[in-house]
Amino acid sequence: MIMAKTPVAVLGTLAEFHKEPIPFDLNALVQLVARLRPDLLCVDMTHEQWQQRDFGGLPPEYREALLPLAYQTDIVIAPIAGEHPPEEPTVPGWRGKVIAILRRWLATLQRTSPGPDAINQGLRHLMADLLYSLSAWLAGPTTGQKLRDHTQRLTQAVRELARRDPGARILVVVNVRHCHLIRAALRKYPEIQVVKYLDL
Amino acid sequence: MNSSPDLKFPVIVLSPYTLHQDVWKLILAGQPGLIVAGATSDLSQITAFIPSDQTSTILIDLPTPQPEIVRRLRTLAPRCGLLFLVQSYELSIILPLLQVGATGFVSRDASIGDLARAIIAAGRGEIVLPAEIAVQSLMALAQGQPIEQEMVAPLSERETDVLRLLALGHTNKDIAQLLFLSVRTVEAHLRSIFAKLGVSSRTEAALWAVQHGYGTPKLK
Q1: Do B56 and B11 touch, CB atoms closer than 8 A?
Q2: Residue B219 pLDDT grade (very low, low, confident, very high; cuts 50, 70, 90)
Q3: For residue A143, which of A3, A89, A187, B7 is within the disulfide window of CB 3.0 to 4.6 Å?
Protein backbone atom coordinates (compact mmCIF):
# COMPACT_ATOMS: atom_id res chain seq x y z
CA MET A 1 0.00 0.00 0.00
CA ILE A 2 1.38 3.43 -0.93
CA MET A 3 0.91 5.87 1.91
CA ALA A 4 0.37 9.51 1.03
CA LYS A 5 2.93 11.80 2.56
CA THR A 6 1.76 14.57 4.81
CA PRO A 7 2.72 17.97 3.36
CA VAL A 8 4.19 20.35 5.92
CA ALA A 9 5.25 23.94 5.30
CA VAL A 10 7.04 26.15 7.77
CA LEU A 11 6.43 29.89 7.77
CA GLY A 12 8.67 32.09 9.89
CA THR A 13 7.80 35.28 11.71
CA LEU A 14 9.89 37.79 13.62
CA ALA A 15 7.21 37.84 16.22
CA GLU A 16 9.28 38.87 19.19
CA PHE A 17 9.90 42.47 18.13
CA HIS A 18 6.56 43.68 19.38
CA LYS A 19 7.71 47.23 19.84
CA GLU A 20 9.08 47.49 16.34
CA PRO A 21 6.66 49.03 13.88
CA ILE A 22 5.51 46.41 11.38
CA PRO A 23 5.37 48.18 8.02
CA PHE A 24 2.72 45.87 6.67
CA ASP A 25 -0.81 45.39 7.91
CA LEU A 26 -1.35 42.16 9.84
CA ASN A 27 -4.23 41.69 7.47
CA ALA A 28 -1.58 40.78 4.87
CA LEU A 29 -0.65 37.79 7.03
CA VAL A 30 -4.32 36.89 7.38
CA GLN A 31 -4.75 37.02 3.61
CA LEU A 32 -1.63 34.93 3.07
CA VAL A 33 -2.70 32.18 5.46
CA ALA A 34 -6.32 32.36 4.29
CA ARG A 35 -5.03 31.79 0.76
CA LEU A 36 -2.88 28.85 1.83
CA ARG A 37 -5.88 27.43 3.66
CA PRO A 38 -4.03 24.79 5.72
CA ASP A 39 -5.97 22.04 7.49
CA LEU A 40 -3.88 22.38 10.62
CA LEU A 41 -2.12 25.55 11.72
CA CYS A 42 0.65 24.80 14.20
CA VAL A 43 1.53 27.60 16.56
CA ASP A 44 4.19 27.96 19.24
CA MET A 45 1.76 27.87 22.13
CA THR A 46 1.29 25.37 24.96
CA HIS A 47 -1.81 23.21 25.34
CA GLU A 48 -2.53 24.99 28.61
CA GLN A 49 -2.50 28.37 26.91
CA TRP A 50 -4.86 27.01 24.29
CA GLN A 51 -7.24 25.31 26.73
CA GLN A 52 -7.39 28.36 28.97
CA ARG A 53 -7.57 30.77 26.03
CA ASP A 54 -4.63 32.54 27.61
CA PHE A 55 -3.51 34.55 24.60
CA GLY A 56 -2.30 37.65 26.42
CA GLY A 57 1.39 36.82 26.19
CA LEU A 58 1.32 35.68 22.59
CA PRO A 59 2.81 37.72 19.76
CA PRO A 60 0.41 39.96 17.83
CA GLU A 61 0.76 37.77 14.74
CA TYR A 62 -0.95 34.98 16.64
CA ARG A 63 -3.28 37.00 18.83
CA GLU A 64 -4.58 39.50 16.33
CA ALA A 65 -4.23 37.70 13.03
CA LEU A 66 -3.98 33.92 12.99
CA LEU A 67 -6.18 32.89 15.92
CA PRO A 68 -9.17 35.03 14.81
CA LEU A 69 -8.73 33.76 11.24
CA ALA A 70 -8.70 30.13 12.35
CA TYR A 71 -11.70 30.69 14.60
CA GLN A 72 -14.00 31.62 11.76
CA THR A 73 -12.66 29.31 9.07
CA ASP A 74 -11.99 25.59 8.76
CA ILE A 75 -8.38 26.05 9.86
CA VAL A 76 -7.73 24.05 13.02
CA ILE A 77 -5.23 25.44 15.53
CA ALA A 78 -2.70 22.97 16.87
CA PRO A 79 -0.63 24.18 19.83
CA ILE A 80 2.76 22.52 19.45
CA ALA A 81 4.88 23.94 22.26
CA GLY A 82 5.31 21.42 25.05
CA GLU A 83 6.59 24.22 27.25
CA HIS A 84 6.88 27.97 27.03
CA PRO A 85 9.65 29.05 24.65
CA PRO A 86 12.95 29.91 26.32
CA GLU A 87 13.63 33.52 27.20
CA GLU A 88 15.74 35.57 24.85
CA PRO A 89 19.43 35.03 25.61
CA THR A 90 21.04 37.69 27.77
CA VAL A 91 24.67 37.39 28.78
CA PRO A 92 27.03 39.91 30.37
CA GLY A 93 30.10 41.48 28.77
CA TRP A 94 31.05 41.82 25.14
CA ARG A 95 28.96 38.83 24.08
CA GLY A 96 25.85 40.49 25.45
CA LYS A 97 26.68 43.66 23.54
CA VAL A 98 27.15 41.74 20.31
CA ILE A 99 23.83 39.92 20.85
CA ALA A 100 22.15 43.31 21.33
CA ILE A 101 23.61 44.49 18.01
CA LEU A 102 22.47 41.29 16.26
CA ARG A 103 18.99 41.79 17.63
CA ARG A 104 18.95 45.35 16.33
CA TRP A 105 19.76 43.96 12.89
CA LEU A 106 16.94 41.45 13.26
CA ALA A 107 14.59 44.26 14.22
CA THR A 108 15.72 46.15 11.13
CA LEU A 109 14.92 43.09 9.03
CA GLN A 110 11.39 43.15 10.41
CA ARG A 111 11.04 46.91 10.04
CA THR A 112 12.05 46.81 6.40
CA SER A 113 10.04 43.76 5.38
CA PRO A 114 7.46 44.79 2.81
CA GLY A 115 5.13 41.91 3.68
CA PRO A 116 4.75 38.85 5.90
CA ASP A 117 6.32 36.55 3.36
CA ALA A 118 9.44 38.69 2.87
CA ILE A 119 11.18 37.25 5.89
CA ASN A 120 10.66 33.79 4.45
CA GLN A 121 12.31 34.44 1.14
CA GLY A 122 15.83 34.70 -0.21
CA LEU A 123 18.64 36.48 1.56
CA ARG A 124 16.42 37.99 4.23
CA HIS A 125 15.43 34.50 5.42
CA LEU A 126 19.05 33.29 5.44
CA MET A 127 20.22 36.45 7.17
CA ALA A 128 17.62 36.11 9.94
CA ASP A 129 18.62 32.50 10.46
CA LEU A 130 22.30 33.44 10.59
CA LEU A 131 21.72 36.25 13.09
CA TYR A 132 19.70 34.00 15.37
CA SER A 133 22.30 31.22 15.12
CA LEU A 134 25.06 33.64 16.04
CA SER A 135 23.04 34.95 18.99
CA ALA A 136 22.46 31.43 20.27
CA TRP A 137 26.16 30.58 19.87
CA LEU A 138 27.23 33.74 21.70
CA ALA A 139 24.76 33.06 24.50
CA GLY A 140 26.58 29.84 25.35
CA PRO A 141 25.88 26.12 25.33
CA THR A 142 23.10 26.14 27.96
CA THR A 143 20.98 28.66 26.06
CA GLY A 144 21.75 26.91 22.79
CA GLN A 145 20.62 23.60 24.26
CA LYS A 146 17.35 25.15 25.55
CA LEU A 147 16.60 26.50 22.11
CA ARG A 148 17.42 23.18 20.46
CA ASP A 149 15.21 21.37 23.00
CA HIS A 150 12.35 23.71 22.20
CA THR A 151 12.78 23.22 18.48
CA GLN A 152 12.85 19.47 19.07
CA ARG A 153 9.56 19.64 20.99
CA LEU A 154 7.96 21.65 18.18
CA THR A 155 9.21 19.14 15.61
CA GLN A 156 7.95 16.13 17.53
CA ALA A 157 4.55 17.74 18.00
CA VAL A 158 4.27 18.35 14.26
CA ARG A 159 5.31 14.76 13.58
CA GLU A 160 2.68 13.48 16.02
CA LEU A 161 0.00 15.54 14.26
CA ALA A 162 1.09 14.11 10.91
CA ARG A 163 0.94 10.62 12.38
CA ARG A 164 -2.59 11.14 13.77
CA ASP A 165 -3.91 12.82 10.65
CA PRO A 166 -1.91 11.61 7.66
CA GLY A 167 -2.46 13.64 4.52
CA ALA A 168 -3.61 16.76 6.36
CA ARG A 169 -2.04 19.96 5.01
CA ILE A 170 -0.01 21.35 7.87
CA LEU A 171 1.32 24.88 8.15
CA VAL A 172 3.72 25.64 10.99
CA VAL A 173 3.99 29.33 11.87
CA VAL A 174 6.83 29.93 14.30
CA ASN A 175 9.65 32.33 14.96
CA VAL A 176 12.01 32.32 12.01
CA ARG A 177 14.83 31.05 14.25
CA HIS A 178 13.17 27.60 14.34
CA CYS A 179 12.39 27.35 10.63
CA HIS A 180 15.59 25.82 9.28
CA LEU A 181 15.93 23.42 12.19
CA ILE A 182 12.33 22.23 12.00
CA ARG A 183 12.48 21.77 8.24
CA ALA A 184 15.74 19.82 8.52
CA ALA A 185 14.38 17.64 11.33
CA LEU A 186 11.08 16.93 9.57
CA ARG A 187 12.82 15.95 6.33
CA LYS A 188 14.20 12.90 8.14
CA TYR A 189 10.75 11.38 8.45
CA PRO A 190 9.58 9.49 5.38
CA GLU A 191 5.91 10.07 6.14
CA ILE A 192 6.37 13.86 5.92
CA GLN A 193 6.98 15.95 2.83
CA VAL A 194 8.40 19.36 3.65
CA VAL A 195 7.18 21.85 1.04
CA LYS A 196 7.54 25.56 0.48
CA TYR A 197 4.62 27.42 2.00
CA LEU A 198 3.43 28.61 -1.41
CA ASP A 199 3.30 24.98 -2.55
CA LEU A 200 1.23 23.75 0.38
CA MET B 1 -0.99 25.61 -4.28
CA ASN B 2 -3.16 22.55 -4.28
CA SER B 3 -6.20 24.28 -2.87
CA SER B 4 -8.24 26.85 -4.73
CA PRO B 5 -6.66 30.09 -3.61
CA ASP B 6 -9.74 32.25 -3.53
CA LEU B 7 -12.44 29.71 -2.82
CA LYS B 8 -14.94 31.50 -0.64
CA PHE B 9 -18.15 30.27 0.86
CA PRO B 10 -21.28 31.92 -0.62
CA VAL B 11 -23.92 33.42 1.65
CA ILE B 12 -27.24 34.91 0.67
CA VAL B 13 -29.00 37.33 2.99
CA LEU B 14 -32.77 37.26 3.40
CA SER B 15 -34.05 40.30 5.26
CA PRO B 16 -37.15 42.45 4.83
CA TYR B 17 -35.19 45.68 5.31
CA THR B 18 -32.91 47.20 2.66
CA LEU B 19 -30.68 48.82 5.25
CA HIS B 20 -30.18 45.50 7.06
CA GLN B 21 -29.33 43.84 3.77
CA ASP B 22 -26.71 46.50 3.02
CA VAL B 23 -25.17 46.26 6.46
CA TRP B 24 -24.96 42.46 6.26
CA LYS B 25 -23.36 42.68 2.83
CA LEU B 26 -20.76 45.08 4.17
CA ILE B 27 -19.96 43.07 7.28
CA LEU B 28 -19.90 39.65 5.63
CA ALA B 29 -17.84 40.79 2.66
CA GLY B 30 -15.05 41.68 5.08
CA GLN B 31 -14.79 38.18 6.46
CA PRO B 32 -12.08 35.89 5.07
CA GLY B 33 -13.66 32.78 3.63
CA LEU B 34 -17.08 34.31 2.88
CA ILE B 35 -18.55 35.92 -0.19
CA VAL B 36 -21.98 37.55 -0.35
CA ALA B 37 -23.79 36.06 -3.34
CA GLY B 38 -26.81 38.34 -2.88
CA ALA B 39 -29.29 39.94 -0.56
CA THR B 40 -33.03 40.19 -0.96
CA SER B 41 -36.33 40.56 0.80
CA ASP B 42 -38.15 38.53 -1.82
CA LEU B 43 -38.23 34.78 -1.35
CA SER B 44 -38.86 34.15 -5.01
CA GLN B 45 -35.60 35.92 -5.93
CA ILE B 46 -33.48 33.65 -3.75
CA THR B 47 -32.85 31.09 -6.46
CA ALA B 48 -31.21 33.71 -8.67
CA PHE B 49 -28.40 34.10 -6.13
CA ILE B 50 -27.70 30.44 -5.41
CA PRO B 51 -24.49 29.24 -7.05
CA SER B 52 -25.07 26.06 -8.99
CA ASP B 53 -21.62 24.59 -8.37
CA GLN B 54 -21.22 25.22 -4.64
CA THR B 55 -23.14 24.69 -1.45
CA SER B 56 -24.24 27.91 0.19
CA THR B 57 -26.09 29.31 3.18
CA ILE B 58 -29.10 31.58 3.38
CA LEU B 59 -28.80 33.88 6.38
CA ILE B 60 -32.33 34.68 7.49
CA ASP B 61 -32.79 37.90 9.43
CA LEU B 62 -36.51 38.08 10.15
CA PRO B 63 -38.22 39.57 13.19
CA THR B 64 -40.46 36.51 13.65
CA PRO B 65 -39.32 33.47 11.69
CA GLN B 66 -42.16 31.13 10.86
CA PRO B 67 -42.03 27.46 9.79
CA GLU B 68 -43.80 28.39 6.57
CA ILE B 69 -40.72 30.36 5.48
CA VAL B 70 -38.58 27.25 6.00
CA ARG B 71 -40.97 25.10 3.99
CA ARG B 72 -40.89 27.52 1.09
CA LEU B 73 -37.12 27.92 1.22
CA ARG B 74 -36.67 24.16 1.36
CA THR B 75 -38.66 23.90 -1.86
CA LEU B 76 -36.77 26.73 -3.55
CA ALA B 77 -33.32 25.90 -2.24
CA PRO B 78 -33.20 22.29 -1.11
CA ARG B 79 -29.39 22.15 -0.88
CA CYS B 80 -28.80 25.40 0.99
CA GLY B 81 -28.15 25.75 4.67
CA LEU B 82 -30.87 27.80 6.37
CA LEU B 83 -29.39 29.81 9.20
CA PHE B 84 -31.68 31.92 11.37
CA LEU B 85 -30.75 34.89 13.51
CA VAL B 86 -32.68 34.65 16.76
CA GLN B 87 -33.15 36.86 19.77
CA SER B 88 -32.72 33.92 22.13
CA TYR B 89 -32.49 30.15 21.88
CA GLU B 90 -36.05 29.34 22.88
CA LEU B 91 -36.98 25.76 22.09
CA SER B 92 -40.56 26.80 21.41
CA ILE B 93 -39.28 28.90 18.49
CA ILE B 94 -36.39 26.74 17.37
CA LEU B 95 -37.97 23.27 17.36
CA PRO B 96 -40.80 23.96 14.90
CA LEU B 97 -38.26 25.47 12.51
CA LEU B 98 -35.86 22.55 12.92
CA GLN B 99 -38.64 20.08 12.31
CA VAL B 100 -39.40 21.55 8.91
CA GLY B 101 -35.79 21.84 7.77
CA ALA B 102 -33.97 24.78 9.38
CA THR B 103 -30.26 24.10 9.63
CA GLY B 104 -29.12 26.34 12.43
CA PHE B 105 -29.54 29.31 14.69
CA VAL B 106 -27.26 32.13 15.76
CA SER B 107 -28.03 34.59 18.50
CA ARG B 108 -28.09 38.26 17.69
CA ASP B 109 -25.61 38.60 20.55
CA ALA B 110 -23.03 36.40 18.80
CA SER B 111 -19.74 37.72 17.50
CA ILE B 112 -19.05 38.11 13.80
CA GLY B 113 -16.59 35.21 14.10
CA ASP B 114 -19.33 33.00 15.52
CA LEU B 115 -21.65 34.02 12.71
CA ALA B 116 -19.02 33.35 10.02
CA ARG B 117 -18.30 29.84 11.26
CA ALA B 118 -22.03 29.15 11.64
CA ILE B 119 -22.61 30.20 8.03
CA ILE B 120 -19.95 27.79 6.80
CA ALA B 121 -21.19 24.95 8.99
CA ALA B 122 -24.84 25.45 8.02
CA GLY B 123 -23.91 25.43 4.35
CA ARG B 124 -22.41 22.01 4.83
CA GLY B 125 -25.70 20.79 6.26
CA GLU B 126 -24.53 20.76 9.86
CA ILE B 127 -27.02 21.57 12.59
CA VAL B 128 -25.80 24.76 14.22
CA LEU B 129 -27.01 25.08 17.77
CA PRO B 130 -25.30 26.07 21.00
CA ALA B 131 -24.19 22.98 22.92
CA GLU B 132 -26.46 23.90 25.86
CA ILE B 133 -29.60 23.25 23.86
CA ALA B 134 -28.33 20.88 21.18
CA VAL B 135 -29.01 17.69 23.13
CA GLN B 136 -32.42 18.96 24.29
CA SER B 137 -33.31 19.82 20.71
CA LEU B 138 -32.14 16.50 19.35
CA MET B 139 -34.02 14.60 22.05
CA ALA B 140 -37.16 16.56 21.27
CA LEU B 141 -36.72 15.82 17.59
CA ALA B 142 -36.09 12.16 18.36
CA GLN B 143 -39.32 11.76 20.31
CA GLY B 144 -41.69 9.54 18.53
CA GLN B 145 -39.07 8.33 16.10
CA PRO B 146 -38.37 4.62 16.29
CA ILE B 147 -34.98 3.71 17.69
CA GLU B 148 -32.77 2.57 14.88
CA GLN B 149 -31.49 -0.94 14.90
CA GLU B 150 -28.03 -1.75 16.20
CA MET B 151 -25.04 -0.62 14.24
CA VAL B 152 -23.77 -2.69 11.36
CA ALA B 153 -20.15 -2.65 12.48
CA PRO B 154 -18.44 -1.48 15.67
CA LEU B 155 -17.10 2.05 15.79
CA SER B 156 -13.41 2.72 16.26
CA GLU B 157 -12.27 4.71 19.28
CA ARG B 158 -11.85 7.85 17.16
CA GLU B 159 -15.27 7.38 15.55
CA THR B 160 -16.81 7.03 19.01
CA ASP B 161 -15.21 10.33 20.02
CA VAL B 162 -16.53 12.01 16.88
CA LEU B 163 -20.05 10.61 17.37
CA ARG B 164 -20.13 11.70 21.00
CA LEU B 165 -19.15 15.24 20.04
CA LEU B 166 -21.70 15.22 17.23
CA ALA B 167 -24.41 14.23 19.70
CA LEU B 168 -23.38 17.12 21.92
CA GLY B 169 -24.22 19.47 19.09
CA HIS B 170 -20.74 20.33 17.88
CA THR B 171 -20.10 21.30 14.27
CA ASN B 172 -17.44 19.56 12.20
CA LYS B 173 -15.06 22.43 12.85
CA ASP B 174 -15.66 22.23 16.61
CA ILE B 175 -15.06 18.48 16.53
CA ALA B 176 -11.91 18.92 14.47
CA GLN B 177 -10.61 21.58 16.83
CA LEU B 178 -11.36 19.53 19.94
CA LEU B 179 -9.59 16.47 18.53
CA PHE B 180 -6.85 18.43 16.69
CA LEU B 181 -7.78 16.82 13.39
CA SER B 182 -8.50 18.42 10.04
CA VAL B 183 -12.13 19.10 9.15
CA ARG B 184 -11.74 16.80 6.14
CA THR B 185 -10.66 13.96 8.44
CA VAL B 186 -13.67 14.53 10.66
CA GLU B 187 -15.89 14.42 7.57
CA ALA B 188 -14.27 11.11 6.60
CA HIS B 189 -14.95 9.72 10.07
CA LEU B 190 -18.55 10.87 9.82
CA ARG B 191 -19.01 9.11 6.47
CA SER B 192 -17.69 5.94 8.04
CA ILE B 193 -19.96 6.40 11.07
CA PHE B 194 -23.01 6.91 8.83
CA ALA B 195 -22.21 3.66 7.03
CA LYS B 196 -21.75 1.74 10.27
CA LEU B 197 -24.96 3.10 11.79
CA GLY B 198 -26.93 2.63 8.59
CA VAL B 199 -27.99 6.29 8.47
CA SER B 200 -27.78 8.78 5.65
CA SER B 201 -27.34 12.16 7.36
CA ARG B 202 -25.68 13.79 10.32
CA THR B 203 -29.10 14.58 11.80
CA GLU B 204 -30.00 10.89 11.76
CA ALA B 205 -26.59 10.02 13.19
CA ALA B 206 -27.00 12.62 15.92
CA LEU B 207 -30.47 11.33 16.74
CA TRP B 208 -29.13 7.76 16.82
CA ALA B 209 -26.35 8.89 19.14
CA VAL B 210 -28.72 10.71 21.50
CA GLN B 211 -31.07 7.73 21.58
CA HIS B 212 -28.14 5.45 22.39
CA GLY B 213 -26.77 7.58 25.20
CA TYR B 214 -23.93 9.33 23.42
CA GLY B 215 -25.35 12.74 24.18
CA THR B 216 -23.79 12.98 27.59
CA PRO B 217 -20.30 14.33 28.19
CA LYS B 218 -17.58 11.69 28.48
CA LEU B 219 -16.57 10.99 32.05
CA LYS B 220 -12.88 11.50 32.73
Answers
A1: yes
A2: very low
A3: A89
The ipTM (two decimal places) reads: 0.85
Cα within 13 Å of Cα(A34), Cβ side? 22
User: A111-144: per-residue pLDDT in tens?
Assistant: 787 777 877 888 888 888 888 888 888 888 888 8
CA distance B170 to B205: 13
Cβ-based neighbours of A189, under 8 Å, separated by 6 or more? A159, A162
User: Tens digit of pLDDT for each residue in B19-63?
Assistant: 999 999 999 998 988 999 999 999 989 999 999 888 899 999 999
What residues in A contact B116, CB-CB < 8 Å?
72-73
* Ramachandran area for residue A93 (φ above 0: left; ψ -120 to 50: alpha; else beta): left
| Overall average pLDDT of the B181-191 stretch | 96
pLDDT at A23: 60
Residue B144 sits at the chain A interface (C-beta within 8 Å): no
End-to-end CA distance of chain B: 41
Q: What share of chain B is helix, strand, coil (3-state, %, to 5)?
A: 50, 15, 40
Number of H helices, E strands in chain A: 8, 5
Contacts of A200 in chain B (CB under 8 A): 1-2
In 3D space, the residue among A176, A200, A171 whose CA is nearest the CA of residue A41 turns out to be: A171
CB contact under 8 A, B180 and A78: yes
H or E, element range at B192? helix B183-197
